[in-house]
């Protein structure tokens, strides 16, 4: 992999998706394992990959920073090798000054903060938790001259009740990435990943885990057998695929100076397999 980034900051790095992104970044920068990737432009109807490569040598000069409210690795990962390779730092994603301090010197920022739309949580809070918590770090990155922003957005399934506030929050982040961050004259690139449901194992403190893939993987297989492109845009995407895509978008030269780019759910499934 040809890498231009030398300091990548992941907001939400202790979460389900963010921790997987951090692991993928470690693999990509140490030569352990491989990161396969493709890119789909927002204006393109095609989801074919533009490039595919593997890590061939380690690059210890790349610093990986995970920013979260706790400022430390999740308990389940604290002793793992990948967590020891990461710099963990405390940051309130809604505090602009905190975010500016954390993103100073970064060459790429990944935002992967989100919250499920539980019925007992207000709509305003859901919008904030999925929107502002990603926009504030993005604006801080702009202020610090960061040239690349990777946003973990979402593909929202149609006709599913209770997702309105969640969808608004995710849409707000995508609007920010497209209309504010991405700018050709400043050579700033914004890459938005749009997964539907994310299939994997959600690890919890205390040694517990939730194997979401047990029911999500068969659902994806069934959708793939049908062969409908529209169905594939709503099929569960493997967590590792999503993490690989985020790492590639943050590190690879192919994603520099591209303006605004969207990687669809279908592309995440088909073009970023481990």
Q: Work out the strand percent.
A: 15-25%
CATH class: Alpha Beta
Gap between N and C termini: 14 Å
User: How do the helices and strands follow one another from N- to C-terminus?
Assistant: EHEHEHEHEHEEEEHHEHEH
Q: Quick one: overall form? A: globular
Q: Taking strands numbered 1, 2, ... along the chain, how are they ordered across the largest sheet?
A: 3-2-1-4-5-6-11
Assign the structural class, choosing from mainly alpha, mainly beta, alpha/beta, alpha+beta, or little secondary structure: alpha/beta
Q: What is the number of strand segments?
A: 11
Largest sheet descriptor: 7 strands, parallel
- Uncertain stretches of 5 or more adjacent residues: 1-5, 32-57
**Total of helices:** 9
CATH superfamily heading: NAD(P)-binding Rossmann-like Domain
**Quaternary structure annotation:** single chain
CATH topology name = Rossmann fold
Q: What is the CATH architecture term?
A: 3-Layer(aba) Sandwich
Tally the structural domains: 1
Describe the overall structure.
By secondary structure, this protein is α/β, with parallel strands linked by helices. The protein has one domain (7-196, 240-271): NAD(P)-binding Rossmann-like Domain (Rossmann fold, 3-Layer(aba) Sandwich), CATH 3.40.50. It has nine helices and eleven strands. It has helices spanning 16-30, 81-85, 96-103, 123-143, 164-181, 213-226, 229-232, 239-251, 265-271, and strands at residues 7-11, 63-68, 87-90, 108-111, 148-152, 189-193, 198-199, 201-203, 209-211, 237-238, 260-263. β2 (63-68), α2 (81-85) and β3 (87-90) form a beta-alpha-beta unit. α3 packs across α4 (123-143). The chain is globular. The model is unreliable at 1-5 and 32-57 (pLDDT under 50).
């Amino acid at each position: 992999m040809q890498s231009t980034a030398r300091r990548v900051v992941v907001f939400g790095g202790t979460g389900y998706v963010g921790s997987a992104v951090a692991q993928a970044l470690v693999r990509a920068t140490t030569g352990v394992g491989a990161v396969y990737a493709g890119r789909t432009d927002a204006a393109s109807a095609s989801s074919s990959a533009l490039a595919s490569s593997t890590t061939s040598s380690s690059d210890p000069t790349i610093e990986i920073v995970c920013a979260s409210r706790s400022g430390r690795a999740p308990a389940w990962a604290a002793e793992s090798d990948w967590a020891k390779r990461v710099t963990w730092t405390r940051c309130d994603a809604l505090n602009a000054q905190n975010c500016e301090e954390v993103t100073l010197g970064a060459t790429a920022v990944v935002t992967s903060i989100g919250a499920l739309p539980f019925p007992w949580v207000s709509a305003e809070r859901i919008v904030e938790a999925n929107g502002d918590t990603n926009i504030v770090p993005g604006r801080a990155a702009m202020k610090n001259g960061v040239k690349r922003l990777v946003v973990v957005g979402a593909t929202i399934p149609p006709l599913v009740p209770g997702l309105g506030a969640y969808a608004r929050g995710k849409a707000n982040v995508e609007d920010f990435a497209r209309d504010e961050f991405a700018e050709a004259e400043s050579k700033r690139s914004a890459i938005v990943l749009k997964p539907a449901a994310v299939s994997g194992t959600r690890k919890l403190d205390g040694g517990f885990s939730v194997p979401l893939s047990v029911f999500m993987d068969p659902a994806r297989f069934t959708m793939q057998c049908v062969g409908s492109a529209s169905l594939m845009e709503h099929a569960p995407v493997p967590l590792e695929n999503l993490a690989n895509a985020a790492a590639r978008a943050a590190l690879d030269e192919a994603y520099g100076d591209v303006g605004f780019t969207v990687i669809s759910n279908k592309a995440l499934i088909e073009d970023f397999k481990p």
